[in-house]
């Protein structure tokens, strides 16, 4: 059994727009994406995908679910298989139930992660402060044509020469977080005492930030001719090179405006291109481009352009990028490869030939299909049977890595023409998978449970939309709501129990997936929420308090009416009536205060 916490973590990393977009052509429509439903025949789009709720819903046939549910319905995968498929695409390993960390260990891991993050942030501030007084470092950056404004935007810094300058930033230089974050190296040679020293010394510092803007690692460039030219942070619990891209946080808006992302080979390429009018550039971190890199970029744009030097090393890097792109290549994606002259990098090319010339290079970059065909036929000899067979041999694994699509079919046809075969022979020889025929979504089973009362339904909808509010539901509030519900609040209690199992920061998609697995009772309200605007957390909080308060007032009034109708005037009854009246007045005052705060907001 897969732990619920893993499902929640997975769905927080997966982008459902990317998952559904592999199979359905989606277009932006307001806050959501729209397309033709793959589960029933329709001519006008009624299929919507919500990037905020991470859920899809068809207003025509009623099909809906998370990324997991979509793969199950569309591809016919089982629950576990769908989870493994999604996890593989984002570099996660599916654990088994027995692998779940105990609460104490989980808290320890979270505390360590926080300590590492704080260490990186403090070091980043220190390096930026050091750059202000480092004339040699500023002279170098100015020589590369960078302004103070661009240095500030990318938070560039300087690690001074010397072995333990970070002592000035960290009162406790022996803190374990300094070693675990990669800021400090610790050695114990010849059985002597442990020695610590700064990893980065006399280098321009490039902070690497995740998509939230948090510093998770550094790249340091040497100022003189020393080696290595670039030194990167080691992999840590915060930082995995194969998953991160330098400059992506800073480039997100520019990528949307330009309509494409430019993938380069180094830190300085990114910063210099931003200075020269190409802020949509990012870079891999001293490692080959990976499928996770490609997937991250495709969440930002459908158009990727990889820029490489024209030398042998650049060609090898381009080939690795091609391999990373193939699993994500499809009819609605554009992936191109730009090869500059061997004597130029993007920075020097723009400075020599100008922005218009570089824009032309980008526009005329080689499409993935052409690069693939060039690679498989690179050994030449296509005039011989052996040469054509060798090209087919090289092409087999590449085409097998691609999803079935119109693009793959076009490449198959071109390859067949090159090798004097037919597309059908290529597909049979390579054992290429056929396009998946989507299954029709079966109508959801009807719930056998009675529909919740209006007030209970309102609270359930609020908790579905903002699961984090469940932490504010006291036992008394639940009891008050249950008292006015037709089945004793069974649905509400089930919802709260489900949210409780999800730990901290539960999200809508993960919660809906958990509820879907337990039956159809919540399907209707989940579907309704998908068609509505996003709930503001504070508004939802006030509405929840108001709903609980209304239930309490209803119960108080009912008891007051019952006692009054009894005609009893015993001291106990009179005391209880006074108590109920005071409670009723306090609830009214709370309602007035909430109304006033809402009006002020």
TrEMBL record:
EC number annotated for this UniProt entry: 2.7.7.101
Toprim domain location: 259-341
Leader peptide range in chain numbering: none
InterPro entries: DNA_helicase_N/primase_C, DNA_primase_core_N_sf, DNA_primase_DnaB-bd, DNA_primase_DnaG, DNA_primase_DnaG_DnaB-bd_dom, DNA_primase_Znf_CHC2, DnaG_bac, DNAG_N
Matching SMART domains: DnaG_DnaB_bind, TOPRIM, ZnF_CHCC
GO biological process terms on file: DNA replication, synthesis of primer
Zn finger residue spans: CHC2-type: 37-61
Molecular functions per Gene Ontology: DNA binding; DNA-directed RNA polymerase activity; zinc ion binding
Catalyzed reactions: ssDNA + n NTP = ssDNA/pppN(pN)n-1 hybrid + (n-1) diphosphate
Cofactor(s) annotated in UniProt: Zn(2+)
One Gene Ontology term, aspect cellular component: cytoplasm
Keywords: DNA replication, DNA-binding, DNA-directed RNA polymerase, Magnesium, Metal-binding, Nucleotidyltransferase, Primosome, Transcription, Transferase, Zinc, Zinc-finger
Free-text comment about domains: Contains an N-terminal zinc-binding domain, a central core domain that contains the primase activity, and a C-terminal DnaB-binding domain.
Function: RNA polymerase that catalyzes the synthesis of short RNA molecules used as primers for DNA polymerase during DNA replication.
Protein name (Swiss-Prot/TrEMBL): DNA primase
Organism this protein belongs to: Noviherbaspirillum pedocola
Encoding gene per record: dnaG
């Amino acid at each position: 059994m897969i732990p619920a916490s893993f499902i929640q973590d997975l769905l927080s990393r997966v982008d459902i727009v990317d998952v559904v977009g592999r199979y359905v052509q989606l277009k932006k429509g307001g806050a959501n994406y729209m397309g033709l439903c793959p589960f029933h025949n329709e001519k006008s789009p009624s299929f919507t995908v919500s990037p905020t709720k991470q859920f899809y819903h068809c207003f025509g046939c009623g099909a809906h679910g998370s990324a997991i549910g979509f793969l199950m319905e569309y591809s016919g995968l089982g629950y576990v298989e769908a989870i493994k498929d999604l996890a593989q695409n984002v570099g996660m390993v599916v654990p088994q139930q027995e692998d779940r960390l105990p609460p104490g260990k989980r808290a320890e891991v979270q505390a360590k992660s926080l300590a590492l993050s704080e260490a990186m942030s403090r070091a980043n501030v220190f390096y930026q402060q050091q750059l202000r007084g480092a004339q040699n470092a500023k002279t170098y950056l100015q020589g590369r044509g960078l302004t103070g404004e661009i240095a500030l935007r990318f938070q560039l810094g300087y690690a001074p020469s010397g072995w333990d300058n970070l002592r000035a930033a960290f009162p406790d230089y022996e803190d374990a977080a300094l070693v675990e974050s990669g800021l400090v190296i610790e050695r114990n040679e010849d059985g002597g005492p442990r020695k610590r020293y700064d990893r980065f010394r006399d280098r321009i510092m490039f902070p690497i930030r995740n998509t939230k803007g948090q510093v998770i690692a550094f790249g340091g460039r040497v100022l003189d001719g020393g080696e290595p030219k670039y030194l990167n942070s080691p992999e840590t619990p915060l930082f995995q090179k194969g998953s991160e891209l330098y400059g992506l946080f800073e480039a997100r808006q520019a990528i949307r405006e330009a309509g494409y992302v430019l993938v380069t080979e180094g830190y300085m390429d990114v910063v210099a291109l931003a200075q020269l009018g190409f802020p949509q550039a990012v870079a891999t971190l001293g490692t080959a481009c990976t499928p996770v890199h490609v997937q991250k970029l495709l969440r930002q744009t459908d158009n990727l352009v990889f820029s490489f030097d024209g030398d042998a090393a650049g060609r090898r890097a381009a080939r690795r990028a091609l391999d990373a792109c193939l699993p994500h290549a499809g009819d609605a994606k554009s992936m191109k490869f730009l090869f500059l002259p061997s004597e130029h990098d993007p920075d020097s090319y723009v400075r020599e030939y100008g922005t218009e010339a570089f824009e032309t290079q980008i526009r005329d970059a080689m499409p993935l299909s052409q690069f693939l065909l060039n690679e498989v036929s690179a050994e030449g000899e296509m005039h011989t049977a052996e040469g054509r067979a060798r090209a087919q041999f090289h092409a087999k694994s590449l085409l097998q890595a691609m999803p079935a699509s119109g693009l793959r079919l076009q490449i198959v046809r071109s390859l067949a023409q090159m090798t004097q075969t037919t597309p059908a022979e290529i597909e049979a020889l390579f054992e290429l998978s056929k396009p998946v025929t989507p299954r029709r979504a079966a109508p959801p089973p009807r719930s056998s449970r009675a529909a919740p009362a209006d007030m209970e339904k309102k609270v359930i909808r609020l908790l579905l939309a903002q699961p984090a509010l469940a932490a504010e539901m006291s036992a008394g509030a639940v009891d008050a709501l249950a008292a006015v519900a037709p089945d004793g609040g069974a649905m509400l209690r089930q919802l709260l129990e489900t949210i409780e199992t999800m730990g901290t920061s539960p999200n809508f998609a993960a919660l809906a997936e958990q509820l879907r697995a337990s039956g159809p009772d919540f399907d209707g309200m989940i579907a309704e929420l998908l068609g509505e605007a996003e709930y503001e957390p504070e508004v939802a909080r006030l509405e929840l308090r108001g709903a609980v308060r209304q239930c309490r007032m209803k119960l108080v009034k009912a008891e007051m009416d019952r006692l009054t109708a009894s005609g009893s005037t015993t001291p106990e009854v009179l005391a209880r009536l006074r108590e109920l009246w005071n409670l009723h007045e306090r609830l009214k005052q709370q309602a007035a205060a909430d109304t006033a705060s809402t009006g002020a907001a």
